[in-house]
Protein 1
Amino acid sequence: MNANLARPQGAGTLRFAALLATYMQSANLPLPNAVLRFIQGSLSMTDDQAGWVFTSYLAASAITMPVAQWLAGRYGLKRVYQAALAFFVLGLLLATVATTPLEFVGARIIQGLASGVLAPLSMAISMETLPLEKRAKFGATWTAIVLLGIVSGPSIGGWVSEHFGWRPIFYISLPLSAFIFLVMALLLAEKKAEQRPSFDFFGFGSFTLALISLQMLLDRGERLDWFASTEIWLEAAGCALGLYLFAVHLLSKKVHFLNKRLFKDRNFVLSTIIFFAVGFVLLSTMALTSPMLDEILGYPPDTTGSLTIPRGVGLVGAFLLMGRVPERFDRRLFVAIGVAVVIYANWLMLGYSPLMDWSPVAIAGAIQGIGIGILMPSLTKIAFSTLDPKLRPEGTGFFNLSRVYGSTLGVAIVQIFFFNNTQAMHLALVSHLTPYRAAAHAAPMSLQALAGLNEMITGQAAFIAVVDQFKLLMVAMLVVSPLVVFLRKPVPTN
């Protein structure tokens, strides 16, 4: 596609629709977060399957995101965009009629596949409606909208579910999708690449094989008792084979979908690793906090969703303020500050208690949001300041993918440790209920009383396990924090 296309008629409306699609697809990722208890109950979904609600969407979008531009160049931007939008609506409708966990997860996969195409193409459409001199700064606006969708999705889902049930949360996007489809049909001109674009399908396929196999291994391992299962061995073998083929292909071929020159820029590589950790922490924290409030502490869905708002305000507010920081200030300092603030926020989460009210959650969430809001634009500035301008489009795609990969693996890993820790803590707490504990054995206990006692112990064990996962997320940021020292001072971008 030609980067110097003239601004189409109705450029403002077209850009608004593209940004609305960006918000919609990012908000639908965490939309069920505050209502997992109701989704699990109505679909007979087990606790380990609840994590699939997020990982299926993320993994699917990570698969289609790298190929979105090729599809648009090969088959036409308008045609591919409208097809992705229709596919997204199909996923929404299937989610509302799902009656089993697999049907619901399948609907989420369809949404994720469409989302991976909509996100980069929405940005491309928005960029083409802007004058050349304004395109360089537009990336910050687009990222802010993505983040706004991620942090506001649970509050929207919680409010709708409290008043209308969980299935209507997916109906919200239907009129938005219809509006976006109509605007694109009327105002977006069809565009294809002047020459048939090439794409490294072998590299993409091997990388995708490794990603899918690893995700399946993490999602299914706990249920299948890990390597006692033939399926887990096959998934581990698929992951190893995919990584091996991709590494050999990367080292032996000159042309592939990830340019080797990207990995020669120290700032880009280190910033991408830290950005991966940001994705690991952000969505995993949300995936832990909402179920903690909803299932363990018994908060209603609208309150659970509302407690994500402080994180969103802090994140988006800090992100926008960073755009006003003068160029003369060294962004490495802000990266260090952002990492420190995120670590501090996760440290505050270690003090959560079953006896607390909502304020510690709001305060820790707001502080974490501020830290990530400082960190993300600073990392972006550093990552691309020393990168060859010719590599920036490809680098942007991989940089954003690192956050998605981090979120996908982060949610899967914290789910694994959560269930293991819950079982371990349950056994530890039960071991203290001996005949010598008079409070538990003052009189013969009925089955109903024993069930209530077990439920109380399970809740205590689950709460301790959740707090342990916040410690894991804090450690993840501590591990990448030394990388800040090795960043080079950024230079002004072209």
Protein 2
Amino acid sequence: MMLPLADLLLSPDDMAAVDKEAAASSIDSYGLMEKAGQAVAASALRYFPGALRFVVLCGPGNNGGDGYVAARALRLAGAMVLLFHLGDPQRLKGDAARAFADRPIEGEAIASYAPRRGDVVVDAIFGAGLSRRVPDEVVAVIARIDEADIPVIAVDLPSGLDGASGQILGAAFRATRTVTFMTRKPGHLLLPGRDLCGELEVFDIGIPARIVRAHADGLIGENTPAQWQTRIPSAGADTHKYKRGHLVVFSGGPNATGAARMSAMAGLKAGAGLVTIASPLEAMSVNAGLLTAIMLHAVEDEASLRVWLTDQRLSTFILGPGFGAGEKARQFCLALADRHLVLDADGITSFRDDPQQLFDAFAAGPTRLVLTPHEGEFARLFPDIAADTALSKVGKARAAAARAHAAIIYKGADSVIAAPDGRALINANAPPWLATAGSGDVLAGIVGGLMAQGAPAFEAAAAGVWLHGLAGQHAGKGLTAEDLVASVKPL
């Protein structure tokens, strides 16, 4: 499925290559800058009609050129406009120099701007191409504007944000609105960038789609149904419970059974035909008294598990929620190396001393393993990748997926789902109130339920994260894990 341009994610480097190819194709690059600046001005006038002054802050590159065009358009519309620049604008080159030459008013050094009530700031200092810490004079301006609580319209990306990672490079504007062009960047979706962009507008300035798509590798995008829906099995008229797969969730001891039941119910609601909790003998009575639609099977040790595994209909397993970390978890996991496995929580931690043992067990054949680490668990399995400050969250998830031959759900408010082949999706539909006890158990259950039905590991992981966010939206603020399970809906 071909996604609309606005749904693609291009890195700042890829977008720079798009701009370069557009110019090489005899497209009027200044005309593109003119459209970008006009779009910013239109947004400013549409959303801030009561502004007393539009204060345009222009940087030393093409982002600043967009700002000079916006300043001219705002002035021609009759607005009061003030212009401030970073560095010596006489040193501008190319289209930015032309935009500066056409500026409507003289500007001042950016350090001289004193915010006033009624101002609306247009931030055209750096945009998405910044890769170094912002200079001190910009840090000071950001602080003054933030203290004055003045609305900010960011051009492309709030200055101070890394467009590839969404990380703050020393200091960054908190924009009320961000106007970007042709496509979004990863920094628009990854945190904290997403929170600092405010409302995001993607404006088509006329670069041909063929050029944009040529530089979009198709491997990175936002996690939406368009990315995976065709790979998720749908129920037909002849569907019965055995066709929809058998999911098994391992339970912990008698005092740690709730997490497994939460995962099991989520898997059932996500569409698995049958769900069984594999329980140690000492927890059988606890689980039996609290299960209805979920079946129960005694599995005490590795030997009893291997006997049970002679039943090939048991295709998908969840290990980790409430299970306990240690040798038993490792034994069970390795016994499941030829099956589909969602490894969560204690299951992940159990391999902290020898993660390669886990990776080797699932290295051959199609991807069968889904790992669901949060920040700390990720660092236990992939300490060197977690410590690599040159990698964004997307880069870390992709590197981990390739190493582990697994689909990775690098959890958080901006969860990243990655596949061994380099595909990665950034999730943006999760409400903040999902951060509650048991939420991860529900996520593991949804993913397992989708895999049991035959969804490939990466697509099951991505769809599971999205459905988890949707359930959180439906359950609402103050949800508990029980509320979340009740709100899970199949595709």
Protein 3
Amino acid sequence: METKDTLSSCSDLNEQEIQQLQKQEKILKENSLNKFNALKTTTQHLERQTFTNSPLFQHVFSHLFHTDIRTFKYELSQNMNNLEKQLNNEIPHEKDSKSALSLIKVQFDKFIHLEMLKSSNYDSNAREARQDFKDYTPMEAQSFNDLIIQHMESIEKCIIERARHEQELSDRLE
């Protein structure tokens, strides 16, 4: 009888551990979606309709992002939808999620590495571009840049953590 009780308590303990891991998975998923929503909120600064009516900012935008506004907004919308879909999956696929995030990183890559965004750059064209960016997006270009980087890094960490956690849960279920 004692062996049966021991097996039963081991089984109960294993079941509790699995339930705890499933609760943690739900929390990790919510966390990754919260990080995604923070990125989405930040990128919405680039979605003002007045951009398309302002030839001056269209020129500045294409100089900063190396593409026109409409193309950028369309591609960003597609890429954000794809990333959100990946993060919403019940079973996360690390490779697919990282790939979706990577497409967004590529869109912002040239902007992130621009020397003209640095406030230490006193070139008149750089100052004007930074001021135009602020006028049209209500954000300093460098602050926007820093936020984009921060959000993408936190999403990547969430993706990695969810994948690690999913592997641990999978190992327990086997």
